[in-house]
């Protein structure tokens, strides 16, 4: 297929060809970045929490008596909860992954690093080498939550220290960290037995490493699994109880748990939104992201549909305008395949120019999103995939008009005025 006749025709239709080229360019730029945003949100939604999510239920209790012995109350509550048929484990915790109640402290791998961090803090306000999320709970927390211990051991009974209301115990002797945090703090070394310096507390000995434990609030990629477990027994009157049971028993167990706790203390407050399965917690946390994914998908598909309509509409218009010239070409020997390939090649050329401009616009748009919305850099492999989609879309959109043009009979050349 020679380009000269195609270029000659396009020179006579500069405005329409230019508008279609710009439409393809903007579609390429926007769709590449939208797909990248969708992929980022899907990845975030699918982040593993490290918990046995399908087996966990949560009850959030609001205490109303500030003078009550909170830890004695929690112990009595847990005994009643563990007696419920179907409950495999029950613990009191201060927070859960994706639970939004986040506590973090500056954390360093050694005393020298902590001293440097404190010196830097006096200059720029930054505290600690890293700021992992800190979890605490009653004995049996790892087993109840379903955390996978990949090295070391669980906390022993004499590790646990009662905490004052509103605080994490300051003198805990040991800690359990996530694998990603251990690798960051002690690169190339075994984290077990190392001393952990956190928030000005006495150094704690790392006794275990868990595979995953997501933060209560997500941050930037790469640090969302930076978490520390401490053997600090919650001392707040308000606490969260976590129950582990078979997935099919969760609704029944929650109902029985509310009844059991109400019998123990009818005056306590159990908010309706505090009685949930962990599946509901995850769904609630990512509800806005899920809605945004739906909107982004709809906008991308709508933009591609409008572009396909533009390509097909312009091709139909050109077929109508060139009926006589098509008939003349058929009369002098052009086959139906020649006419079909002509329109496909013409469309391919226009779309290719649009894609080249679109790739440049996609990079510029991504830089703007990185600057103003902290979006990561667009991987370059998204660009050829976007180009391939638009090439395929262009060829499919022009196929019907091109087939209609290829069926124009030679006799039309003699009947056209």
Structure description:
The chain is built from 13 helices and 13 strands. With 417 residues, the protein is an alpha+beta fold. The chain has helices spanning 3-11, 14-45, 70-82, 111-124, 141-145, 179-185, 250-264, 278-285, 287-321, 323-331, 336-373, 382-406, 412-415, and strands spanning 56-61, 89-93, 107-108, 133-136, 149-152, 161-162, 174-178, 195-198, 204-210, 227-230, 232-233, 239-244, 275-277. Helix 3 crosses helix 7, helix 9 runs parallel beside helix 12 (382-406) and helix 11 packs antiparallel against helix 12. The mean pLDDT is 86. The protein is elongated, with a radius of gyration of 32 Å. The strands form three sheets. Strands 3, 4, 5, 7, 8, 9 and 10 form a seven-stranded mixed sheet that branches. It has a four-stranded antiparallel sheet with strand order 2-12-1-13. 51% of the residues lie in helices and 13% in strands. It folds into two domains: 3-46 and 288-415, no CATH class; 63-270, no CATH class.
How is this structure best summarized?
The chain has 417 residues and is an alpha+beta fold. The protein is built from 13 helices and 13 strands.
Strand content: 5-15%
Q: Report how far apart the termini are.
A: 28 Å
| Residue share in helix | 40-55%
Number of helices: 13
Derived structural class: alpha+beta
Shape: elongated
The total number of structural domains is 2
How many extended strands? 13
């Amino acid at each position: 297929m020679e380009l000269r006749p195609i270029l000659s025709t396009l020179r006579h239709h500069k405005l329409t060809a230019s508008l279609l080229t710009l439409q393809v360019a903007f579609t390429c730029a926007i769709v590449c970045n939208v797909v990248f945003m969708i992929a980022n949100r899907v990845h975030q939604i699918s982040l593993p929490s490290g918990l046995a999510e399908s087996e966990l239920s949560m009850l959030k209790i609001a205490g109303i008596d500030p003078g009550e012995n909170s830890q004695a109350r929690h112990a009595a509550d847990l005994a009643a909860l563990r007696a419920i048929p179907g409950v495999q484990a029950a613990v009191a915790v201060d927070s859960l992954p994706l639970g939004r109640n986040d506590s973090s402290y500056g954390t360093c791998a050694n005393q020298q690093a902590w001293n440097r961090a404190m010196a830097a803090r006096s200059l720029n306000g930054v505290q600690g080498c890293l700021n992992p999320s800190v979890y605490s709970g009653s004995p049996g927390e790892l087993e109840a939550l379903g955390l996978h211990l990949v090295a070391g051991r669980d906390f022993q009974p004499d590790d646990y220290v009662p905490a004052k209301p509103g605080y994490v115990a300051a003198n805990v002797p040991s800690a359990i960290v996530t694998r990603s945090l251990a690798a960051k703090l002690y690169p190339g070394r075994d984290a077990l037995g190392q001393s952990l310096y956190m928030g000005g507390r006495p150094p704690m000995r790392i006794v275990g490493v868990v595979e995953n434990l997501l933060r209560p609030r997500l941050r930037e990629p790469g640090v969302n699994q930076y978490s520390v477990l401490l053997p600090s027994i919650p001392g707040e009157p308000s606490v969260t109880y976590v129950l582990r049971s078979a997935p099919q028993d969760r609704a029944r167990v929650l109902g029985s748990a509310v009844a059991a706790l109400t019998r123990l203390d009818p005056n306590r407050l159990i908010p309706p939104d505090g009685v949930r399965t962990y599946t509901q917690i995850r769904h609630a946390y990512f509800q806005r992201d899920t809605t945004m994914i739906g909107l982004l998908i709809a906008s991308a598909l709508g933009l591609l549909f409008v572009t396909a309509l533009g390509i097909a509409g312009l091709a139909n218009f050109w077929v109508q305008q060139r009926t006589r010239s098509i008939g003349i070409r058929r009369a002098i020997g052009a086959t139906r395949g020649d006419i079909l390939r002509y329109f496909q090649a013409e469309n391919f050329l226009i779309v290719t120019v649009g894609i080249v401009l679109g790739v440049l616009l996609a990079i510029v748009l991504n830089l703007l999103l990185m600057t103003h919305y902290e979006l990561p850099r667009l991987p370059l492999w998204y660009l050829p995939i976007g180009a391939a989609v638009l090439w395929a879309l262009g060829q499919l959109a022009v196929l019907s008009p091109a087939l209609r043009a290829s069926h124009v009979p030679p006799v039309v050349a003699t009947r056209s005025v």
